[in-house]
Specification:
Blueprint (H helix, E strand, L loop, with lengths): L3 H4 E3 L5 H16 L4 E3 L6 E5 L3 H11 L8 E3 L3 H7 L4 H10 L4 E6 L14 E5 L4 H10 L3 E2 L14 H8 L5 E4 L10 E4 L6 E4 L5 H8 L29 E4 L4 H5 L4 E5 L9 E4 L3 H16 L5 E5 L6 H13 L2
Parallel strand pairs: 1-8, 2-8, 4-6, 5-9, 11-14, 12-13, 12-14
Antiparallel strand pairs: 2-3, 3-7, 4-7, 5-6, 9-10
Helix pairs in contact: 2-6, 10-11
Bound molecules: threonylcarbamoyladenylate (TXA) and magnesium ion (MG).
């Protein structure tokens, strides 16, 4: 294996020819069963050939991920998606509206997709990321790329290349550095196999956006009889190494309960935090969340007090990640 420096391949400041050579090399790693860290618009992914069960096994090993938690297939166009899953009119409409973008669609899988990639399920989640580097890599590989977030299972997702190296650098053949990601929370996972579209994981595309495109209500897994859940959402996630509590700005000092606290949110808190990070809006709060969680761990604070967002737009995804980080 090459040393860490040469595995972290920066895309910036390369000539077109150098860049092409780099993508060819990365594509060859994927085709031959290796692992490549890649940026997407949401978080960095740990990519492998989705059609190669042995390559996919390496992802689970590198992350320490439970093998019943299925992976998302990343494609560079609708044709590639069609080779992997059964499309229906609603899926086509959503692809047209939101792809490339942070929307993963759960559809019935075709037999080309190994069971290991889909965690033993009949369905597979698929998306086309809105990131040039990810799309070039998929094109150069010629195969769909299975990629979970490139963190050790349970840790906050990585939103820059160095964090990928820090977390799983020893187990990856190359990391493509595309700079910090711009959505910051993972894709929305939407089940479109049944009569109702079911939101399995809130993410970069909001429930309101989906409903406007579908002209129909999007259900939540706990609504009525629908108990189906995205398997990944059963596990504790995004855990920072210090505790996190959710609070309104007015109750922040009380929530800290005598501990040295770092405040994160869009409003000024009541009381005197040890440190504070104030975002200009909820989009920025979401974009910076995972980075700030990792920063807070080494800040000297004993507890993270996070402003509770309202449950609309990106706020729903943000609240979901904060609740998981708080371990409740
Ligand atoms: O933004 C993202 O989606 C990032 C980037 C790298 O694309 N990827 C990501 O992957 O977040 P991961 O593995 O950390 O989360 C995938 C989620 C899990 O909650 C998993 O259970 C769910 O998608 N999922 C995958 N296939 C599924 C399926 N067939 N049915 C239901 N849920 C599925
Ligand atoms: Mg993840």
């Amino acid at each position: 294996m090459t040393d860490m420096e040469s595995r972290l391949a920066e895309i910036f400041a390369r000539t077109e020819q150098e860049e092409r050579t780099l993508f060819e090399k990365a594509g060859e790693i994927i085709r031959s069963g290796g692992l490549v860290g890649m940026p997407t618009e949401t978080v960095y992914g740990l990519g492998a050939n989705a059609l190669d069960a042995e390559a996919v096994r390496k992802i689970y090993l590198a992350k320490g991920r439970p093998s019943d938690n299925p992976l998302i297939l990343h494609v560079c166009d609708v044709e590639m998606a069609e080779r992997c899953v059964e499309l229906n009119p609603r899926a086509r409409l959503l692809m047209e509206t939101f792809w490339p973008g942070p929307l993963s669609l759960v559809l019935n899988a075709k037999s080309l997709v190994p069971l290991r990639t889909r965690g033993g399920l009949d369905t597979a989640a698929i998306r086309m990321p809105n990131n040039r580097i990810a799309l070039e890599l998929i094109r150069a590989s010629g195969v769909p790329i299975a990629a979970p977030s490139a963190n050790i299972s349970g840790r906050p997702s990585p939103t820059d290349a160095q964090t990928v190296i820090d977390d799983i650098g020893d187990n990856v053949d190359m990391v493509l550095d595309g700079g910090p990601t711009n959505v910051g929370v993972e894709s929305t996972v939407l089940d479109v196999t049944g009569e109702d579209a079911v939101l399995l994981r809130p993410g970069g595309i909001s429930k309101e956006q989906l409903e406007a495109a579908l002209h129909a209500e999007v259900k939540l897994p706990q609504d009525g009889n629908i108990i189906k859940r995205s398997p990944g959402t059963r596990y504790r996630h995004y855990a920072p190494k210090i505790p996190l509590v959710l609070s309104a700005p007015s109750g922040a000092a009380e929530a800290a309960n005598g501990r040295k606290w770092i405040w994160i949110g869009v409003s000024e808190p009541d009381g005197e935090p040890y440190k504070k990070v104030i975002f200009s809006n909820f989009d920025e709060y979401a974009r910076e969340l995972f980075r700030v969680l990792r920063f807070a761990e080494g800040s000297g604070a004993e507890v993270i007090v996070a402003e509770r967002p309202s449950e609309d737009g990106i706020g729903r995804a943000l609240l979901d990640r904060l609740i998981r980080a708080s371990g409740i």
